[in-house]
Amino acid sequence: MSQQKNQTAFLLSTAILLLSIIASAGGLLITGLYRDNDFVKSAWFTNDLITLMVVSPLLGLALWFAQKGSLRWQLVWMGMLAYNAYNFAFYLFGAAFNPFFLLYVALFSLSVAALIFGLANLDVTHLAQRFSPKTPVKGISIYLLVIAIMLFLVEGGMILGYLFTGVLPETIVLTGHPTSIVFALDMALVIPLSAIAAVLLWKRHAWGYVVGVVMLLKGFTYGLVLCLGTALLAYSPAYGKWDPLMPFYVIVVVGGFWGCWVLLKHLQE
Predict the structure, then answer these.
(1) Which domains, ranges and CATH numbers included, belong to the chain?
(2) pLDDT averaged over consecutive 10-residue blocks of the chain (269 residues)?
(3) Nearest to 46 by CA among 59, 33, 27
(4) Distances (CA, A) of 180 to 19, 169, 170, 174, 200
(5) With a threshold of 0.90, does the pTM exceed it?
């Protein structure tokens, strides 16, 4: 990144880091902040916990080392921005109106802006040249494509089920919302971007490495949210059973971490 444009992305990301700590800590500590039903409150609790304990520290480390010139941490930085954009879209569009509404607006907007600045000003060609020719891109590409297909089949199956039967998917009924923010974000962003990353990475296209790491990191971190949330809900009165998709969530976490580790390991600083 050029120094001036890097500074813009850095300042935006620093604001995101501070505001996300406030939002997640507030969600965990302020009684009565969330006005949603118990099922949704449980989701906010796990989101806040992973954001505070995993994502914020990773974003802080990424900002520190990226400023010192680390290529690996520049990609981690972009991945954490992608997580924040995706995560706080849920709060902004899905949480019952609460005192943190303007905070969610700021976090979502800043995350999108920082991600645009950061990605647009990465020296993608230079980054791609720093990856070893021995980088096992095909295995990671297959993983990304399989995840995209599985996610499409799971959520698409629920959508088609409603079209043919008129019965709302259970996940929508449990939230009490009129629609599914999860379906909207996954169908519009996660699935197509994962598939695009898989194809570009297979071809060793420069952007394939970047988008691949970003989607793997997003999958790893948000997969942690899903795993923890599923475990908590299994023992809570709000749900009281294990989500049958738990094995899929575990695959997303393990595969996301593995794929990201392999790619960054083959990136020569």
Answers:
(1) 3-125 (1.20.140.40), 137-265 (no CATH)
(2) 71 98 98 94 96 98 94 97 98 97 98 96 92 96 98 96 94 92 96 98 96 97 96 84 94 97 95
(3) 27
(4) 26, 9, 11, 11, 29
(5) yes
